[in-house]
Amino acid sequence: xxxxxxxxxxxxxxxxxxxxxxxxxxxKKDYLSNLEKDNAELRDENTKLRESLQARDAxxxxxxxxxxxSPHTPGHEAASSGxxxxxxxxxxxxx
Length: 95
Prior knowledge:
Layout: H1 2-69, H2 74-94
């Protein structure tokens, strides 16, 4: 009986190693497949975020151009008219 087990033992080990290798290759294939899927999803998300960022940058440039080309800005108009009114009323009082 001992010789029968020793004869089959290398064959059994060979089959087990083949099964183990096949399982390892299958797991690696699944892992790589998932990585590729995740990579594609992240690339798509990155593209959408870049497009969104470009659109927001364009909108900010448009708003800045509107501010730069407007004749009066609310903050500057109030400050200059307030200072002018104070000095003219002070001048009127000193006369």
